[in-house]
Sequence to fold (295 residues):
Amino acid sequence: SIVMRQYYNIVLAAAVTAVLALLFFNIFSDRYKEREYNSSFEWPEGKKMGLSLTFDDGRNSQIDKGIPLFDKYGVKGTFYVSTQNIVGRTEKWRRAAANGHEIGNHTLSHPCTGNFTWTMGYELEYFTLDRMRDELEAASEIIRDSLGVLPVSFAYPCGQTFVGSGIETKSYVPLVATMFQTGRGWLDEGPNDPMICDMAHLLGMNMDGMSFREVKRMIEFAKRTGKWLILVGHEMDVKGDQTTYLSTLDAICKYATDPANEIWIDNVQNIASYISEKRNDIIVAKALHEEFITE
Fold:
């Protein structure tokens, strides 16, 4: 019948699509594996990778639920705070900083593209580099006065690194490079190669809404390739939107602090400082080697 023929055609089309998808996946996987390589970077104490857990906005769940979990394992995170969110909670944030958690700058007003309706009045399209500099300086001053620390790390709100629009669009990565040790992105697609990564534009990978099994895949890839994985979250709770689950964080901390897994887990500032020092040593050694050869 016509109905049966249509049914068989649909089934056949679905089967063909599935086979093609599987073939594409296998080809893509093979090519992806070919691109894998081990970074020549030497991590401390025989570690195979670096791992930083970072969180944006200074939300209440971070100080109330997330940081106590980290403290249980001795894990140090990086928290890029929005200054308005730490008002009334400064004593807890001060204790967190004193305990080794890093406090980073996340601007004063969290400017993002005007395509988000909630950015009204703070659209990046209407920003200039001078206005952004004022934002960054003001936020750092508030953090210094409130928490007693001057931020050396920065996270781009919404992971967006531009100001202006059209032919007037400019990157503010160079500005961040002059003001901070590091600048971190968001929703990026891979970890950082310590030999080449731009400290002012570090890749940050999302971990909100993910299970430990999903996060572990990212960790294992970074370990196989000797890279620095920076994970990004927002809320730290059992459920909710833009939330890194406490169960996932507990499993990450347990896994990363097990010496058998050869992972260096630390805040952004500490790992960035080590990488910068090692890269400088490599540059000096190379220069001395070239000087010796030419003599």
Summary: The longest strand covers residues 49-57. Confidence is low (pLDDT under 50) at residues 16-34. The helical segments are 2-35, 60-73, 90-98, 129-147, 173-179, 212-225, 246-256, 268-294.
